[in-house]
Each structure stands twice: as structure tokens, then as C-alpha cells.
Amino acid sequence: MPTGPADQSEQSEQSEIRTGPTQKEPAAMAVTVRIPTILRTYTGGAAEVAVEGANLAAVIDALEAAYPGIRARVLDESGRLRRFVNVYVNDDDVRFTEGLATETKDGATLSIIPAVAGG
Fold first, then answer.
1. How is 23-88 classified by DSSP, letter by letter?
2. Largest Cα span, the chain
């Protein structure tokens, strides 16, 4: 049985190949939420906040957990988007996609925009 340095090095390399570094789960990226001026009292004045969520409903839940009271300004009593609040995921109006089920992919930008009315 050879026991020279070359044999030990070869065994060490084989061991490294077998054990290799463990793969970590990819870290979930946050969704950036743009907060309109009127709702910034809930976010301590922040114009943008980061939360996690797989879809719009989950993002709103995360917003509510971090900034209590904001959900009631975005959703009505029945849990639907308020009539005069527009929400965009990236550049897509969620009213024309899947509403609260609209997917929010890693790195997405969500914009909450209150409708402006007047004459």
C-alpha cells in the first residue's frame, strides 16, 4: 500500500470532490414597494420599503405586519383593492392581470398610486 505524499494528496482531492461545499437555498429577494406621500405616515416617511411576498396579497400582508394600518388604506372592508387606489407590479396594472393573486417575482417593484379626481 503506497503512503507517499502524492497518494495522500489524491485521497484528499477525492474526499473534497465527494463532500464538496453544501449548497445554500437561494435567499428570497425583497419586493420594493413605492409608497405614495399620503401613506408615508405609516412607513415613518419612507418613500420606498422592502418586503417579501410571492404575490400581491402576500406583499400587502407583509406591509401590514411591518406598517400596521396600511392595509385598510389599500384594501376595502371585503378585502378587495380600493376603487381609487391603483397598484402596479413593475409596469402592469394588477386590475388587468390577476388582482391580488398577481405574482411578485424576486426583485419586483410594486407601486401604490392613489387615483386623482377633480375637475
1. PPPPPPPPEEEEPPGGGTTTTTT-SEEEE--SBHHHHHHHHHHHSTTHHHHHB-TTSSBPTTEEEE
2. 94
Q: Which residues contact 54 (CB under 8 A, 6 or more apart)?
A: 103, 104
Short-list 17, 15, 47, 21, CA closest to 33? 47
Q: Give me the average pLDDT of each 10-residue run along the chain (119 residues).
A: 55 44 51 97 97 95 97 96 96 96 95 84
Among 43, 32, 115, 117, residue whose Cα is nearest residue 81: 115
Cβ burial, residue 100 (10 Å; 0-12/13-18/19+):
middle
Domains, the chain, ordered by start: 31-114 (3.10.20.30)
pTM of this structure:
0.74
Length of the chain: 119
- Give the 3-state secondary structure of residue 97: coil
Of 84, 90, 37, nearest to 59 (Cα)?
90
